[in-house]
């Protein structure tokens, strides 16, 4: 069972890395657009930012589509639903919210340090199981903390503007 999990984990990491490589073209285009429109720096954004800045925003100025569809699914929930659901201590939702925000930051062109890339890969493997093993609860919260630090600009090279 453990060997099967390791094989599945390696496959998911390969899929994740392939998705990042594929998105590199999008990231480069977005980075070029950012440099034309502003200071050329792509900042990380918090869960709160992505919750309010999306294609569903009712305020026109906040109606900014994400770099992936808001309706992308993870365990039967859309990314939009995940960000807009209070975790209330649930390890899966706590990690899923930070993972979605970190993925959006990465796909939007924010710098992605190796530690964060590793955390994203591990988090994705855990989240795609769609359940939390009692043995992994601390790992869920630990990964969520690492990704939250990144999303808040407290880890990594580019903090959000004040």
Unreliably modeled segments: 14-37
What is the average per-residue confidence, as pLDDT, rounded to a whole number? 81
- Count up the domains: 1
Radius of gyration: 16 Å
Q: What characteristic shape results from the CA principal axes? A: globular
What proportion of the residues is helical, as a percent range? 55-70%
How do the strands line up in the largest sheet?
A: 1-2
The count of strands amounts to: 2
Please report the number of helical segments. 6
Description:
The chain has 162 residues and is an all-alpha fold. The protein has one domain (2-149). Helices cover 57% and strands 2% of the residues. The chain has helices at residues 2-37, 47-52, 79-83, 91-107, 114-127, 137-151; strands at 73-74, 77-78. The protein has a two-stranded antiparallel sheet. Helix 1 (2-37) packs across helix 5 and helix 4 (91-107) crosses helix 5. Mean pLDDT is 81; it is low at 14-37.
Question: Helices, strands, pairings?
Answer:
Layout: H1 2-37, H2 47-52, E1 73-74, E2 77-78, H3 79-83, H4 91-107, H5 114-127, H6 137-151
Antiparallel strand pairs: 1-2
Which terms summarize this structure?
162 residues, 6 helices, two-stranded antiparallel sheet, mainly alpha
Concise structural overview:
The chain is an all-alpha fold. It has helices at residues 2-37, 47-52, 79-83, 91-107, 114-127, 137-151; strands at 73-74, 77-78.
């Amino acid at each position: 069972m453990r060997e099967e999990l390791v094989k599945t984990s390696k496959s998911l990491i390969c899929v994740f890395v392939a998705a990042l490589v594929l998105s590199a073209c999008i990231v480069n285009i977005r980075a070029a657009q950012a440099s034309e429109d502003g200071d050329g720096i792509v900042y990380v954004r918090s869960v709160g930012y992505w919750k309010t800045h999306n294609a569903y925003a009712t305020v026109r100025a906040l109606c900014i589509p994400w770099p992936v569809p808001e309706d992308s699914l993870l365990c039967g929930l859309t990314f939009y639903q995940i960000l807009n659901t209070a975790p209330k201590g649930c390890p899966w939702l706590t990690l899923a919210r930070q993972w979605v925000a970190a993925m959006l930051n990465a796909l939007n062109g924010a710098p992605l340090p190796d530690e964060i890339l590793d955390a994203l890969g591990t988090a994705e493997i855990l989240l795609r199981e769609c359940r939390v093993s009692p043995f992994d609860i601390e790992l869920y919260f630990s990964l969520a903390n690492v990704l939250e630090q990144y999303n808040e600009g407290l880890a990594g090279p580019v903090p959000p503007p004040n």
